[in-house]
Amino acid sequence: MSVPLRPDLVELSGYHSPQVDVEVRLNTNEAPLGPPDSWTREMQAAIAGGDLNRYPDRSATELRSGLARLHGVEPEQIFCANGSNEVIQSLLLAYGGPGRRALVFEPTYTMHRHIAMITSTDVVTGRRDEGFEIDLPEARSLIEEFSPEITFLCSPNNPTGISETTEIVKAVVAQTSGLVVLDEAYGEFASRNNIELRKSLADAERLVVLRTFSKKWAMAGCRLGYLVGDAEVVRGCELVALPYHLSSLTQMAGLVALRHEPEMLERSQMIVGERNKLARALEDLPVDTWPSDANFLLLRPRWASAHQVWEELLKESILVRDCSTWPGLSGCLRVTVGTVQENERFIAALSASARR
Length: 356
Ligand SMILES: *Cc1c(COP(=O)(O)O)cnc(C)c1O
Known about the structure:
Bound molecules: pyridoxal-5'-phosphate
Largest sheet: 7 strands, mixed
Helix content: 25-40%
Number of strands: 13
Strand content: 15-25%
């Protein structure tokens, strides 16, 4: 090609979770089953009456009202986009960019760093301790030294499964004069809800909470995520969003899902039960593991390298995530909670590998 790539992009390796064709896919934290049949039927009816010759409602009025009701906030506090990844991009376009800084605490969700780099936002890296908690004095001194425009938190944190403590969230919000973007993609599997916490904060305008339809709602293929934050932050995101970025189909998918919330809730409770079962099964195996508040578990096998175990599982047609090259995660694998049968197959294959 005659035009060279933007120099700051050359080193970006891209985001690739290897998608191998297997029987048991436990590598990307998706829901193991699709949305309920009643959702599909209502969706078909919605498409039939959907005026798809027209551009979508640019401000997604109905969907935002529905989400506002769900969380007990105002529609003006909600911004919807194509997955929470696009919400992150919008926040970085509006509040990051050249000469500005985003603070992340590794190990955490790779996309915070990755999208910051794409938007030419400088990344400041803090480290979590061995238990994957953020060290408050370190967080305070990084905020003081670098004054980041955006600080990313993740609760429960991907890929460790651990929730950020209320103490950390409150202290970081109180310390920074920038935005705190708290990614709650797995919030529905956790015991703590930071949208509720936000309501009690005196400095709530700095806290932005992200949610997605990709996990609990079993709709990763629909690409829908949103933020709950200050109305001014919502307006900032609207400035940088492409016109009509959120298709009518996506808006319908979200609206129909909101009418099926109780069924979805039941399913996420099933996942939590399965996660706890999986955690107990791991206790009997020679692995290090960490308490998870999400729909996945992080583990470190003690009998072989993570990559070796990853390959042995793959031979049994089970795909998990090899995180062993990520910062602070040497030797670690991440496994998504699947159906009862999938989890049993995983434990059987892992036990067999440990015995070899
Ligand atoms: C899966 C995940 C998301 C979801 O991103 P979408 O773009 O909404 O699919 C966001 N944040 C974290 C931490 C995740 O693990």
